[in-house]
Write a structure and sequence with these properties.
Blueprint (H helix, E strand, L loop, with lengths): L10 H14 L2 H15 L5 H13 L3 H13 L6 H14 L2 H13 L5 H13 L3 H13 L6 H13 L3 H13 L6 H17 L6 H17 L5 H13 L3 H12 L8 H13 L3 H14 L5 H10 L6 H13 L6 H13 L3 H13 L5 H13 L3 H13 L6 H13 L3 H13 L6 H14 L2 H13 L6 H13 L3 H13 L6 H13 L3 H13 L3
Helix pairs in contact: 1-2, 1-3, 3-4, 3-5, 4-5, 5-6, 5-7, 6-7, 7-8, 7-9, 8-9, 9-10, 9-11, 10-11, 11-12, 11-13, 13-14, 13-15, 14-15, 15-16, 15-17, 17-19, 19-20, 19-21, 21-22, 21-23, 23-24, 23-25, 25-26, 25-27, 27-28, 27-29, 28-29, 29-30
GO molecular function: DNA binding; mRNA binding
Family: Belongs to the PPR family. P subfamily.
InterPro entries: PPR_rpt (IPR002885), TPR-like_helical_dom_sf (IPR011990)
Length: about 550
């Protein structure tokens, strides 16, 4: 083209060559050509050439190179157009490049060019970086510059307010959006529901039900209007109910998700489902969801492995949990400290102590051992009456720099006491007091139970006095244990009187309370009284 003279003072011809060079990614050749154009055309250079190069860079996500062409464009005194800023701002939004986006927006306003998508991109970047005041300033620019928002722009502005929990402004935007002839879609409603959730969390002085009720009404309105909620909408509503502490309603929403075969939960919703079912102790739901995840061949990552193992420990067989844990490790994923501790508890309860030791060594090697790790192992050995390993684990705990915890002392007291090793029991209790480790309800209940089993009623009374002196009141377990202890000591009237005391203190007796009382009465030949209380239990359907 140069030989035939077609390039001479022809913007169109130069643009054809630049397009060819950009396709080859010959950026050096393109730069040389622009230098030639600058010398040949001077002030007659067109924005088309630069837009061609910027477009090629945007397609390849070449942020620095696109910025270079834009800066060169300005240096050559070539005025950009709407397309220039639309492409650049979309690229900067994708890369979250705040500095270049701010520069491009300032140049756009300097040239008095109005590009709605460029404003949207700037608001999105600020919102993503939680620079909410800056985002609101850009929204104000849009109003000043008389920008007619398109649908995407409306959604971006709506999101900026909702992310801050500014619901009055968001509701106003939604109304303006409708007045402008745009119908709110599922994305807009999802954004609003998120906003209501944000407002509830941000205002700590308000009840969490403050704006939550608005979100719930909006969700129920959407549900009854026939608008098909998508996976994102369901995810938002589920989290909204969880934040409000309404797990029952969250489960109802999850039931609706199950009825929609077209909705495939993503990893985040699956993890939410697992956590909710675990908190609600819905063991069958956990097992069903686990096998469903396994069959659908979801791409398992580290987070999903940890979540499944943590939540499904009570729902799956030990062999399946062991297989899943091994699969996680073999695939190169690292179990969290919580996962290690959960699996230690599972193996300990199943008396698989070789696996307990292997897991402990693995966790220690990774530096993921904490005080709960030792508490779990000590409790497992204690329940199995493996006193040697229990004692050596306590020593390891101290050697690794951990103080012997209250939970560890409680496990040792329970193990030695139930085995009748009263001298060792007293020795552990003394060590606990010497280390200034404060007792809790579990400690006192264990002492009442052990002393009661021995028939040492004076010691039981002493523990009860100590419990009250330290500011604690007997709980349900304390009363149940006391009734059992009084029965062993032949103090039947005192055992019956405890029922009245419980109710006076606002503690409702349970099945174990009455069972212990009936046993105490029978032990002391009070058969008629025992029958009366048994009939009372049947009447109460206990």
């Amino acid at each position: 083209m140069r030989a035939t003279g077609k390039l001479e003072r022809s913007n169109g011809a130069y643009n054809v060559v630049v397009r060819m060079l950009s396709r080859r990614q010959d950026w050096e050749g393109a730069e040389r050509l622009i230098s030639e154009m600058k010398a040949t055309l001077g002030s007659d250079m067109s924005f088309h050439v630069f837009n061609t190069l910027i477009y090629a860079c945007c397609k390849r996500n070449l942020v620095q190179l696109a910025t270079k062409w834009f800066r060169m464009m300005l240096e050559c005194h070539v005025a950009p157009n709407v397309a220039t800023f639309g492409m650049l701002m979309a690229l900067y939004r994708k890369a979250s490049n705040l500095q270049e986006a701010e520069f491009a927006l300032s140049q756009m306003r300097r040239f008095r060019i109005v590009c709605p998508s460029a404003y949207s991109s700037m608001v999105t970047i600020y919102t993503r970086l939680r620079l909410f005041q800056n985002a609101e300033r850009v929204i104000e620019f849009m109003r000043r510059d008389h920008v007619a928002p398109n649908f995407e722009t409306w959604l971006v502005v709506l999101n900026a307010y909702c992310q801050q929990g500014k619901l009055e402004e968001a509701e106003r935007v939604l109304e303006e959006m409708r007045e402008a002839g745009f119908c709110a879609d599922i994305v807009a409603y999802n954004t609003m529901i998120t906003g209501y959730g944000k407002a509830s969390r941000m205002d700590a002085a308000q009840s969490v039900m403050g704006r939550f009720k608005d979100a719930e009404v909006l969700y129920l309105k959407l549900k009854s209007s026939g608008i098909a909620l998508d996976m994102i909408a369901f995810s938002i509503v589920v989290r909204m109910y969880v934040k409000a502490g309404s797990l029952k309603d969250a489960c109802t929403v999850l039931d609706d998700v199950d009825k929609r075969p077209d909705i495939v939960p993503d990893k985040f919703l699956l993890c939410d489902m697992l956590r909710i079912y675990q908190r609600c102790n819905m063991v069958d739901k956990l097992a069903d969801l686990y096998y469903k995840i396994s069959k659908t061949r979801v791409n398992w990552d580290q987070e999903l492995y940890n979540c499944v193992l943590n939540c499904c420990a009570q729902a799956l067989p030990v062999d399946e949990l062991s297989r899943l844990f091994d699969d996680m490790v073999q695939r190169g994923f690292l179990p969290s400290t919580i996962t290690f501790n959960v699996m230690l508890d599972v193996f300990g309860k199943a008396k698989l102590f070789k696996k307990v030791w292997r897991l402990y060594c693995m966790a220690k090697k990774q530096g993921l051992v904490d005080v709960i790790t030792y508490n779990t192992i000590i409790a497992a050995y204690g329940k199995n009456k493996d006193f040697e390993n229990m004692s050596s684990t306590v020593q390891k705990m101290e050697f690794d720099g951990f103080s012997v915890s209250l939970e560890a002392y409680n496990s040792m007291l329970d193990a030695y006491g139930k085995d009748g090793q009263m001298d060792t029991f007293r020795s552990v209790l003394q060590k606990m007091r010497d280390s200034n480790c404060a007792s809790d309800h579990y400690t006192y209940n264990t002492m009442i139970n052990i002393y009661g089993e021995q028939g040492w009623i004076d010691e039981v009374a002493s523990v009860l006095t100590e419990l009250k002196e330290c500011g604690l009141r007997p709980d349900l377990c304390s009363y149940n244990t006391l009734i059992k202890a009084y029965g062993i000591a032949g103090m039947v009237e005192e055992a019956v009187a405890l029922i009245k005391e419980m109710r006076k203190n606002g503690i409702e007796p349970d099945k174990k309370t009455y069972t212990n009382l009936v046993t105490a009465l029978r032990r002391n030949d009070k058969f008629l009284e025992a029958v009366k209380w048994s009939l009372w239990m049947k009447q109460m359907k206990l």
